[in-house]
What we know:
With 705 residues, this protein is α+β, with helices and mostly antiparallel strands. The chain contains twelve helices and 33 strands. Strand 28 (608-620) and strand 29 form a beta hairpin.
Amino acid sequence: MPTQSTNGGISMYPTKYYRAFYHFTIISLVIVFLCNCKNSEEENLYSIALKEVWIPMPDGTRLAADLYLPVTDDSNETFPVLLEYLPYRKDEHRKLRYPVFSYFVKRGYVVARVDIRGTGRSEGELIEYEYTDQEQEDGEEVIQWLSEQDFSTGSVGMFGISWGGFNAIHLAMRQPPALKAILSMMATDDIYEDDVHFIDGMMHVDAYEIGRDLKNVIPGAPDFIVDDEYFEEKFDTEPWLLKYKRQQRDGLFWDRASLNADYSKLKTPILMISGYYDGYRDSSPRILQHVNAPKKAIIGPWNHTFPHMATPPPSIEWRAEAVRWFDHWLKGVDNGILDEPAMAVFIRDGHGPSVPDSIAGSWEWVEEWPSEKVDSLKLYLQDEGRLDSNITEIGQDVLDYIPSAGIEASGSVMWWGDWSPDLRNSDEYSLVYETEPLEEDIQILGFPKLNICTSVDVPQAHFIGRLSDVSASGEVTLVTGAGINGSHRNSSSSPEHLIPGQTYQLKIEMHFTSWTFKKGNKLRVAMSNGQWPMIWPTPSPIEMTVYTGGVNPSSLSLPIWKGRGNHRPQFKVPGKDPKLPGYETKTSGTVSGFAEVSETKNDTIAGITQVIASNEGTITYPWATWKSKEHIIHQVNDHVPAKASVKSNYEILINNDHQKLKWEGILNFWSDESNFYYEYSRRLSDQDSLIRIKTWKDTIPRDFQ
């Protein structure tokens, strides 16, 4: 095993007592930071000590953990433990996690931040992919270990955003005895349909996937040891993206970590927090509906971030609700949280395209889901692009597939989250149906459903539906949308080709939303067979026919919210958190933290369109400077839809007193009528001299994509 550094970090020792943990295996490095965070309103809050420890696994591998500890004068005082369990490099993430965790520590919790096996500073070979059995088995050991320490009351909770929210659900499904409650934020119960590998069951190549393959193989700070063991356990391991793209249909590979395969596995109390601008928001109402365990949810106007840091506002102090949740389940405090309605939702007033300065709306209580406060309004698609409540004689509309259409609808990050620009251009290449100007406001909450009677002239086609708000000036704002892979119409695990010319009744359940369509605006539905670059193009030209009116009319079902009440949720306003010195963002990149669309190029003669996404930033740590840069080119050919590609270059440069290490990940992923083709190289240089290069190539048959 590589040796561990004994000199990398901050050493500021508190004057108050904190328990020494000599009885378990620890590294000699001790990182302790004291924050005396008490003020006149919070006289009884704890100060914070930060310490790194090592947690042994049954096979001898040790996982690296940061413990954020309450400082106490009482050597016998114990605390419940909250676990966040991630592959995202705990040392580098102290800059963000220290202020986030401080809220819990000050209120009498130990917070443990643990690097998953083979990531960050943890030992062992890099896990094969997300949410493996190995990751979960290790997680059970971590929970048990935390429950047995002298600082612990024996009660453990899990919480986290994104991956940490995902595996909080996964570990709870295994029902370890010490795990008493979880909080899952911006996470999903359906890995195949909702995650970034196959959005709505359709091929997608995400900036996260590309970047993760390189970040996975950076050795632990502060020494960044590069030796034979490093190459074997990290650098030379097969890229995750390649594994995912071989698994193009739903089934056992995805079900292993998907709660929706069996909701009865979750018996642990769960608090869900979701955002309308996050791609994982559907899980909150589904869990409320299907899980037979104590459960609550908060759904607000946020993207993939902590709600107390939300931009644009409003933000809330979600940690106050988290403390109430964990106080009840881990400390036995009768604080009334279970007496409140099951779900708090933010009903959006509506806004224009792109990122608004703030998001207007109101908080409402929902007693349960599905809710009696939601009615259904059915509107029918009509000829001449009308949308109203009348059923007319049968008609039909025809659309030719334009593979490059949908750039605006894909949004800045190319998923069903964040913010989209004005959709007028995307709608030009879609079948569009809209109401007359509304005579009164319409509020919705839930899953709008698009039922279409349709046929196509090819065996493989996708169907995309969008719900938008059209202002009096003509601006088109995306409210929600979704798609369906036509071959998945009966089963996403046993796909079947469409029969050209045959009429199908297809149901597209759009992603969970709230919105207020204002009086004078129009409500619009747009349909097409693609939304590139979010969704990989199907291989053939398509002519789609949508049938309106008649016996099986195409329609839109809206979930009408009628529950506005006087008693509404009240959330605390976020306060000021302490900062950990020595961590500084020199240059920041995109709002999302991922590559975002920065440029579009069109060659109208060749029929080729490129969308370019980019991001870069620089952060300094006590031990090094970390610079990252990513450049992704999505390309499609309108004349030959099968010929699509993604090319990317991702660089990470780490500079310290004795190293200048540069990692590069170079991806070329493309397709033809029958296959996807994968070429990926990892390169490592020191002082501009190439140390190692590893390349993977594979041909992956299209599997109903």
